[in-house]
């Protein structure tokens, strides 16, 4: 299967809850990165996984965590949701750990009330 | 000061116009420069990819990188209504990618 798919497309949570977002990377891509895109802003790097190990992290608190699985799927988990976590969460995959060409999914739009 | 600066627009042009989109950056370590296009409710789609300084052309699109000025540009010739989208510049030194805020472009028929 080609391309990057994300689920769910939209979801609404309340402050303090936890959320898990899922991503299926492009086949053969060993790197997955997660980005947060607030309304009217560019994507902000959360973290990157390469071969199931985290190998880079942006300026996000530990309540943002992730997992990458051998079958090219991955998860982004956010605990203790805050209002400012409302954003579009993008998953992107690349061929290797220094991938400069990323394929993005359509994103999961999270609203925190 | 943000690491990557991009005028958010919005920018509105008539069909057929030449569009110029620009970004400036502060980190001289950046070596790889990209332009992504993002339609509403979609993820970013890679348009152009350039390594170091120079020009790259692909159809109606031309990307320019001037590392001495820390300035990159994307030119769209003969713009079409289907080019209406948000254009994001992005750059990296091989680690995580840094994006501009995006410029929202509308091409009017």
How would you characterize this protein structure?
With 113 residues, chain A is mostly beta strands. Chain A has strands at residues 5-7, 10-13, 19-24, 31-37, 44-50, 53-57, 64-68, 73-78, 87-94, 103-104, 108-112. Chain A contains no helices and 11 strands. The model of chain A has no long low-confidence stretch (mean pLDDT 92). With 109 residues, chain B is an all-beta fold. Chain B contains no helices and 11 strands. In chain B, the strands form 2 sheets. In chain B, strands 2, 4, 5, 9, 10 and 11 form a 6-stranded mixed beta sheet that branches. A 5-stranded antiparallel beta sheet of chain B has the order 1-3-8-7-6, with no helix packed on it. The model of chain B has no long low-confidence stretch (mean pLDDT 93). At the A-B interface, strand 5 and strand 10 of A face strand 4, strand 5, strand 9 and strand 10 of B.
Query: What is the chain-wise order of helices and strands of chain B?
Result: EEEEEEEEEEE
Q: The biggest beta sheet of chain A, please?
A: 7 strands, mixed
How many DSSP H or I helices of chain B? Answer: 0
C-alpha Rg of chain A (nearest Å)? 13 Å
Helices and strands of chain B: which structural class? mainly beta
Low-pLDDT stretches of chain B? none
Number of strands of chain B: 11
- Count of alpha and pi helical runs of chain A: 0
Share of helix among residues of chain B? under 10%
Mean pLDDT of chain A: 92
Any low-confidence stretches of chain A, pLDDT <50, length ≥5? Answer: none
